[in-house]
Amino acid sequence: MPAVDHGAEAVLRRLAIVFTAFERALDATPVIRRLNGGRFELAHYQAFLRAHRQQVKEGALWIARAASNVSVDHLELRSTLLRHAVAEHRDFRLLEADYLATGGAVEDIRSAPMTVGSEALSAWMFHEASKPDPFGLLGAMWIIEGLGSFKAAEWGRSVAARLGLPPEAVRFLSYHGENDAAHIEEFREMLAMVLPDPVVADRIVRTAEVTARLYVLQIEDVLS
Question: What is the DSSP string of 136-166?
């Protein structure tokens, strides 16, 4: 019986399958259907920004928590995660600036409550990040960074074109479309730090599956 490959490239192939299903699910959500179908309005974009700001604000926090739970046997991974947290800990400010550029009041986006989907996604991330050596969270990072790399720039261009918005109103989407490709390469390096290991490989893929489902729930809630 041939040995099962649990190396980084094999896991990436499994993650690509998860991401393809994730893209299809995103396209079926009300707000993305409107964006793709030409029925997207300013109120929809502002709702999108409000829904994302609260979850993005916590993103760097769960990455930092995950890093704090990485053992000394994996210091290189810990350092990489900490650098990633530092790079992203102000991203929520871009969402606030975008909201302001659309004519919204910054107080409104800052005070908006988390949606059910955002609550679930954030709770899941902190739950996983609190485990010893939470390598499964690499699967969550694949989903989130992959979204930025493969979809954010496309969404940003569509939003700007359909609503006639200036570049300063879509900076969050544009920034992630430009920079998350580098994060994907960094992700490949982090995978190599913890693989091959069949248990870790399966956990990474499973965490990606759960994160994808909860992220879709967050997008579904934008227009709920």
Answer: THHHHHHHHHHHIIIIIHHHHHHHHHHHT--
Q: State residue 75's pLDDT score.
A: 95
In percent, how much of the chain has pLDDT > 70? 96
* SS3 category, 205: helix
Q: Which of 156, 158, 148 is nearest to 174 (CA)?
A: 156
- pLDDT value at residue 181: 61
CA–CA dist 33, 40 (Å, integer): 9
Is 105 inside a domain boundary? yes
Number of compact structural domains in the chain? 1
Burial class (CB in 10 A: 0-12, 13-18, 19+), 62: buried
**pLDDT tens, 102-117?**
999 999 999 999 999 9
- Cα torsion 19, 198, 120, 160 to 10°: value is -20
Give, rounded to a whole angstrom, the gap between the first and last alpha carbons of the chain: 50
pLDDT classification of 1: cutoffs 50, 70, 90? very low
Domain ranges, residue 177: 8-223
C-beta of residue 54 within 8 angstroms of C-beta of residue 108: no
CATH code of the domain containing 180: 1.20.910.10
